[in-house]
């Protein structure tokens, strides 16, 4: 059985003599949302670049379904100020896109009003939506989103996450996305992969939509799409990301749903 | 109209038309210094042409193409920043060209002509080279317009979307190399990049799409060539510098028009 869109086996990446990623196992299935979380320097972006084929792993294999259509939303887009480019023209860089299709995609992400604005003149939140629209225009089977809520305020983040879920439902595509925030992952994320050079653990996020603190902070509607991924590590990392063995095991380790541990973990 | 003036006009117009879109890419991708380096190396191409007894037009074209490939390779293989690398190569190749030429006592060349252009001395053969080269470059730019624009906006996005990014990047550099080789006869090695950059920069303020900027740059280039040649004809000024001065004047004028 091989229904996955992508499958990474024993992937390791060494950049300038540093082990950035070690022994990564990861797969994304159609209709599944996989969220990568982890601290700065955990190798999230490197992993995404390996998935996209922008970077060849030092060892291990990256398997993609043949002719897989990937929609990619980069972390940020810097367009030189001298290049006069409207949002419409930017979207039309995807072959076969006319104004009607571009408008439909912008409607889907709620950014139709910027269609004729210069790309350099729209806000950070609008830019994220435009980038998402461009990824959708590829009719992707797999959406890869590198920190899709970067530069967006907290309320806007919740809205963007719920938008991504709706897009997944409508298009049935698999989603792989990066978030650097441990506390903000969608309630509908099917799988959370905690990365710190190796896969620390992966599993389903716990739903906290009824947590009073969240309801108070974000409002009831937004809070329903927010969740805290409750889990505890019984190992620690030193500054180089290596696992430190002699950390005392915490007493509160109670996984809500079964979650899988990566090979680098010395427990479980 | 005298033949030589007609040749000069046709050559200048062909170059101005192709320099519009290509110069726009040079501005967007911040490749001005890259163009400058290639043009300085063109003189080395001339010297090698005399040394190996082949046509300067061919020697310069081949030389520029080789240097473009060398630059791309060096940029990827060593840690020096691009501007440092270009700052080493530009004066070195220019100087090497001058040194090599000085050894060839039996060759008498018009150095000023190569440095600042000799538009009014264009032969029918030169004209054929310029028209052919410009037409070929223009055709490729039109065919590759969308992919080239896509890699200019975001190279990784373009890679994920299946475009052959390294090949496209190299193609753009080679197109610039061909235009520089072609343009040397018109404005000379020291002034070539100005013909790429000034019209594009002048068009930039008033363009609302990449196509408008490219087309506007071509028009401004055409106007600069006409004005420069007129100045040269009536006031007996050197043709190449007259064209560049006209382009610079048009650039300044573009600030007077209200921004759209």
How is this structure best described in words?
- The complex is a heterodimer of chains A (268) and B (260).
- Chain A has two domains: 6-69 and 143-261, Rossmann fold (3-Layer(aba) Sandwich), CATH 3.40.50; 78-139, no CATH class.
- Chain A contains seven helices and 14 strands.
- A seven-stranded mixed beta sheet of chain A has the order 5-6-7-3-9-10-14, with helices on both faces. Chain A has a three-stranded antiparallel beta sheet with strand order 2-1-4, covered by helices on one side.
- The longest helix of chain A has 18 residues, at 154-171.
- With 268 residues, chain A is of the alpha/beta class.
- Helix content of chain B is 81%, strand content 0%.
- The N and C termini of chain B lie far apart (39 Å).
- With 260 residues, chain B is mainly α.
- The longest helix of chain B is centred in the middle third of the chain and has 30 residues, at 124-153.
- Chain B has a single domain (3-254), classed as ABC transporter involved in vitamin B12 uptake, BtuC (Orthogonal Bundle).
